[in-house]
Amino acid sequence: QKRNPHELEFHQAVKEILDSLVPALAKQPKYMNAGILERLVEPERQITFRVPWVDDQGKVQVNRGYRVQFNSAIGPYKGGLRFHPSVNSSIIKFLGFEQIFKNSLTGQPIGGGKGGSDFDPKEKSDGEVMRFTQSFMTELHKYIGPDTDVPAGDIGVGGREIGFMFGQYKRIVGGNQAGVLTGKGIHYGGSLARPEATGYGTVYFVNEMLQAQGQSLEGSTIVVSGSGNVAIYAIQKANQFGAKVVACSDSNGYVHDPDGIDYEIVKRLKEVERKRISEYVKERPNATYHLGCEGIWSIPCDIALPCATQNEIDEDAARLLVKNGVKAVAEGANMPSTLAAIDVFLENGILFGPAKAANAGGVAVSALEMAQNSMRLSWTFEEVDKKLHDIMIDIHRSCAEAAESNGYPGNLVVGANIAGFTKVADAMLAQGVI
Ligand code: NDP
Asked: Of 197, 121, 195, 134, nearest to 166 (Cα)?
């Protein structure tokens, strides 16, 4: 805390992980002796840079760009870019730190990184987004590459932004550069099922959590927060499993549709028309719109899937969910539950899937995109989806086994942290003090 004052989100992410590593470290003093924890919490490299661009009125705007290259013990840095006005070094560091363990859990050879900018793509024209992203990449390209650091999307960075950044990277560096970014369009090196991967993966993970308890998704009522990339495909996959999603949201408010959220409408409104979720009720007479996104957790449900942003479920929201009978919570977003909220879930015996396990499907398919780029191959949607499903089953199994063998049966927070940590720590031990 002394070294990183004011980085509250980063402290929160570090505390969650270090608290649950205690049982593993007590058994393995070699990690303590080698200073693994001290090295893990310090990024290998952090880059901040100026991003000047010209808006549609001809005025010069300046944003700040970030890339944190946190840990490359098991592979090239890998993690998304976030464009949102709330972005600062604490947010990027918490995301980069979490990414180390998440990427390890996927079983793919990828290290942890994250980046972004305080640029707000909302209400910007395509031309403004293009000029900003080109300026951003003009600086970022010096630090990334297919074998060193491979960024992807996150909040505010979807197919349009990745396309512009990829074009600029190629223009500067030249040649075939498919492997430098993931989340690319399907006609220039992208992977089928990458847009769907995080949302689908989260639902596959919940399915495993439920099945381990002899329960199933079929017939359950689900609340999904957010209406972006992760939320949209979580809704679609939950419907395919026979569950009913009754609510979703954006940062202004939420919609409650007791007949079940129509995934096609949300997808069109958000991906094609780039409209607010309030527009949904114009097409669904039984649905209601409510101002204020936090209120979504007051809707009774069997399963809650927070898929919007960090700290969106606080202790009060967690207590309300428990009071209303929630059985399972899985984090599609990164760190959407506060530490106090997680305690409420665990103390009340709620099945809880932490982000680094439950939403690892996105980065897992990004790694599959990198593999396809290296081999100059394209797998079918079904092939990628099957690999994703298998990876999520494996992640659940390794978290459950690590929890069990360390004396915390059923605690997937402890399980995910220990399973993700062990592989990275062993790689760091093998590579000496670097
Ligand atoms: P999008 O930008 O596509 O969607 C984000 C959604 O969350 C929007 O509905 C947005 O509403 C809402 N939201 C964003 N910020 C806030 C806020 N401060 N308060 C309330 N609502 C907010 O992003 P993604 O769907 O890609 O990402 C969502 C979460 O999932 C993030 O935590 C991200 O880190 C995580 N994640 C994403 C992965 C991916 O593959 N995309 C992979 C793994 C994790 P509005 O439109 O009003 O801003």
From this structure: 134
Tokens at residue 338, please? Answer: 């506060």
ipTM for the complex shown: 0.98
Q: How far is the CA of 422 from the centre of ligand 1 (A)?
A: 29
The pLDDT score that the predictor gives to residue 4 is: 85
Q: Which amino acid is at 416?
A: A
Cα 133 → chain centroid:
21
Percentages of the chain per state (helix, strand, coil), in multiples of 5:
50, 15, 35
Res 1: pLDDT: 75
Residue with CA closest to ligand 1 atom 23: 155
Q: Are strands 303-306 and 221-225 parallel, antiparallel or unpaired?
A: parallel
Q: How far apart are CA 411 and CA 189, in angstroms?
A: 39
Note the pLDDT of residue 175. Answer: 84
Q: Packing angle between helix 315-323 and helix 339-347, nearest 10 degrees? A: 20
Domain boundaries, the chain: 8-178, 196-353
- Name the pTM for this structure: 0.97
Provide the pLDDT for residue 300.
Answer: 98
The answer to whether domain 8-178 and domain 196-353 are alike in fold is: yes
- Residue located via tokens 């690590």: 402
Cα–Cα distance for residue pair 69/145, rounded to 1 Å: 12
**Record: fold of 196-353:** Rossmann fold (3.40.50)
Residue 99 near residue 152 (C-beta atoms within 8 A): no
Angle at 18 between CA 16 and CA 22, to 5 degrees: 120
pLDDT of residue 232: 98
Burial of 18 (0-12, 13-18, 19+ CB in 10 A): middle
End-to-end CA distance of the chain: 23
pLDDT for the residue numbered 228: 97
| Residue 142 annotated among the catalytic residues of the structure | no
pLDDT, position 2: 79
Statement: 8-178 belongs to CATH 3.40.50.11550: no
Q: What is the rounded CA–CA span in Å between residue 288 and residue 258? A: 9
Regions in the chain scoring below 70 on pLDDT: none
Q: pLDDT digit string (tens) for 270-283?
A: 999 999 999 999 99
Give the largest CA-CA distance in the chain.
63
| Ligand 1 nearest-atom number relative to CA 250 | 11
Question: What's the burial of 2, exposed, middle or buried (CB within 10 Å: 0-12/13-18/19+)?
Answer: exposed
Which residue out of 124, 181, 229, 391 has the highest number of ligand 1 atoms within 8 Å of its CB and is therefore the one to mutate? 229
Residues 6+ apart with CB under 8 A from 362: 80, 152, 194, 197, 198, 201, 230
Q: What is the pLDDT of residue 27?
A: 80
